[in-house]
């Protein structure tokens, strides 16, 4: 939980909830007036920013929307691929592109797509952005050692967390929370080990060359390919 706390016990940098700081600020504001009060207020704001590693928390809407749209794209491609493999012998011949798309989309599982999109918007986008921000605050220098440490932490902390959360999110939507332990036992470890081969080189590139603001988008785009495996695993 420390990775989400911003270093001082706040949730993702929400310094507003530091009651002692806030009360102290109110007392200074009441006891001082005019320019002196303004300077004190500015100093208090500056100290609060420094203490929490950033200003009051704002939901990362851009990153959440990016993660949601790309999760939706990845799931749609995965579903189309699965239906193409299952139904390619039953498609009309000669094959008209419009007929093919219509036949494939007519069987689309829209609830599954909404499930993946909501996971990206509510969990993956905000969560990974907070994680990458935390890593950058802890290791701001772009050295080889720091990049390697971020990659290692990404695999041993973020990787298992993402798999645990998405399996739980999927089973919650399906009303199968009682089956979650069996799902973890059967599929979580193979999925994690398979993911190491894909995500380690992607993470190296992400931390070495991609700026913080674009990291969620970059990893979400990589997730389009990863979703081929993940969607199939969750649908077993």
From TrEMBL:
Q: Which GO terms describe its cellular component?
A: cytoplasm; membrane
- Entry keyword annotation includes Transferase: no
Q: How does it sit in the membrane?
A: Multi-pass membrane protein
Q: Recite the UniProt keywords alphabetically.
A: Membrane, Transmembrane, Transmembrane helix
Task: Locate the region Disordered.
Answer: 21-51
Keyword tRNA processing applies: no
* Family the entry assigns: Belongs to the peroxisomal membrane protein PXMP2/4 family.
- This protein is called Uncharacterized protein
